[in-house]
Amino acid sequence: MTEETVSGDQQLLELRNRIDNIDAEIANLISERASCALKVAKVKKATGEDALYYRPEREAQVLRRAMERNSGPLTDEEMARLFREIMSACLALEEPVKVAYLGPEGTFTQQAALKHFGNSAKSRPLAVIDEVFREVEAGAVSYGVVPVENSTEGVINHTLDNFMNSNLSICGEVELRIHHHLMISDVTRPESITRIYSHAQSLAQCRKWLDAHYPNVERVAVSSNADAAKRVKGEWNAAAIAGDMAADLYGLKVLSEKIEDRPDNSTRFLIIGTQQVPESGDDKTSLMVSMRNEPGALHDLLEPFRRYGVDLTRVETRPSQSGNWTYVFFIDFTGHRDTSGVAEALKEVGDGASDLKVLGSYPRGVL
């Protein structure tokens, strides 16, 4: 054994010992943090404070600070994910968060729920968006996760329509980078694929790739990507388009990776609940406005936002349920409903509208 080999072995031993010591420090600090979380729960119960154990604004602030302190080599997103799991586990000691999401298991909505609440939350898949709203309204779960818009295919109208008849608030948002993969089962013959299953939105997001690689194959729209993954388990001539979680959950082999037409393909999800969220320091607000059907109505709606310097990030129009040829505007903007400028703009818009409902002010999505 050469001197260089001995020196290298010694360096490895020293580094591994250092890692062991760091791991012990991390474990002790996590335990200390968990103990503090339990004390917080006891203080809340003793003082009779409203038992809102999950505080969206507080968690957003913690994650932002974790990323601000990050000096690498881990990315900010990876650092935020690690802190999210620590917070999720600590919160479960106080009161596990119950979350409903648009299922079934293996969907991108489940992935969004895990990204926002962590793996220690108790999550429940539901078949349709309406059921997610109903479960939260009934108090069976504390929060729901529903998709609201995709960067390629646009807004999910069914989610917006549910807000017209609901008193729920938006408590948060999640933006998820969407990667679609073509996957097959262990009985599939790749050269004999005659149909490809996926959700209609996913098929649309992969249209150009499919035209180029499988132009003559039948494209079958199903209720979800997870449903598509389940269907191919017993079909030798079928494939599915879905995400990593579905491939892992249903034991499928990825034949082609990242087949979405746009590499920046993302979907935004909303966290719905019953609480009003205080300011976090970096917030968004969503509202629903009905205007009188008269000339200049749209100008009158938008003018106060311009005058008070409120940055609108999205304006969508949906047919009103109160009559033909009347419309409801869904508006997102930067800022909290209680901040100066925003509050004044909302008052002026409300004075000129036939109806205005603030759907919620909530922390801007963290990565």
UniProtKB/TrEMBL annotation:
<dbReference type="InterPro" id="IPR002701">
    <property type="entry name" value="CM_II_prokaryot"/>
</dbReference>
<keyword id="KW-0057">Aromatic amino acid biosynthesis</keyword>
<dbReference type="GO" id="GO:0004106">
    <property type="term" value="F:chorismate mutase activity"/>
</dbReference>
<dbReference type="InterPro" id="IPR045865">
    <property type="entry name" value="ACT-like_dom_sf"/>
</dbReference>
<dbReference type="Pfam" id="PF01817">
    <property type="entry name" value="CM_2"/>
</dbReference>
<protein>
    <recommendedName>
        <fullName>Bifunctional chorismate mutase/prephenate dehydratase</fullName>
        <ecNumber>4.2.1.51</ecNumber>
        <ecNumber>5.4.99.5</ecNumber>
    </recommendedName>
</protein>
<dbReference type="GO" id="GO:0004664">
    <property type="term" value="F:prephenate dehydratase activity"/>
</dbReference>
<feature type="domain" description="ACT">
    <location>
        <begin position="286"/>
        <end position="363"/>
    </location>
</feature>
<dbReference type="Pfam" id="PF01842">
    <property type="entry name" value="ACT"/>
</dbReference>
<dbReference type="InterPro" id="IPR036979">
    <property type="entry name" value="CM_dom_sf"/>
</dbReference>
<keyword id="KW-0511">Multifunctional enzyme</keyword>
<feature type="domain" description="Prephenate dehydratase">
    <location>
        <begin position="98"/>
        <end position="274"/>
    </location>
</feature>
<dbReference type="Pfam" id="PF00800">
    <property type="entry name" value="PDT"/>
</dbReference>
<keyword id="KW-0584">Phenylalanine biosynthesis</keyword>
<comment type="function">
    <text>Catalyzes the Claisen rearrangement of chorismate to prephenate and the decarboxylation/dehydration of prephenate to phenylpyruvate.</text>
</comment>
<feature type="domain" description="Chorismate mutase">
    <location>
        <begin position="6"/>
        <end position="98"/>
    </location>
</feature>
<dbReference type="InterPro" id="IPR018528">
    <property type="entry name" value="Preph_deHydtase_CS"/>
</dbReference>
<dbReference type="GO" id="GO:0009094">
    <property type="term" value="P:L-phenylalanine biosynthetic process"/>
</dbReference>
<comment type="pathway">
    <text>Amino-acid biosynthesis; L-phenylalanine biosynthesis; phenylpyruvate from prephenate: step 1/1.</text>
</comment>
<dbReference type="InterPro" id="IPR002912">
    <property type="entry name" value="ACT_dom"/>
</dbReference>
<keyword id="KW-0456">Lyase</keyword>
<dbReference type="InterPro" id="IPR036263">
    <property type="entry name" value="Chorismate_II_sf"/>
</dbReference>
<dbReference type="InterPro" id="IPR010957">
    <property type="entry name" value="G/b/e-P-prot_chorismate_mutase"/>
</dbReference>
<feature type="site" description="Essential for prephenate dehydratase activity">
    <location>
        <position position="267"/>
    </location>
</feature>
<dbReference type="GO" id="GO:0005737">
    <property type="term" value="C:cytoplasm"/>
</dbReference>
<dbReference type="InterPro" id="IPR008242">
    <property type="entry name" value="Chor_mutase/pphenate_deHydtase"/>
</dbReference>
<dbReference type="GO" id="GO:0046417">
    <property type="term" value="P:chorismate metabolic process"/>
</dbReference>
<comment type="pathway">
    <text>Metabolic intermediate biosynthesis; prephenate biosynthesis; prephenate from chorismate: step 1/1.</text>
</comment>
<keyword id="KW-0963">Cytoplasm</keyword>
<keyword id="KW-0028">Amino-acid biosynthesis</keyword>
<keyword id="KW-0413">Isomerase</keyword>
<dbReference type="InterPro" id="IPR001086">
    <property type="entry name" value="Preph_deHydtase"/>
</dbReference>
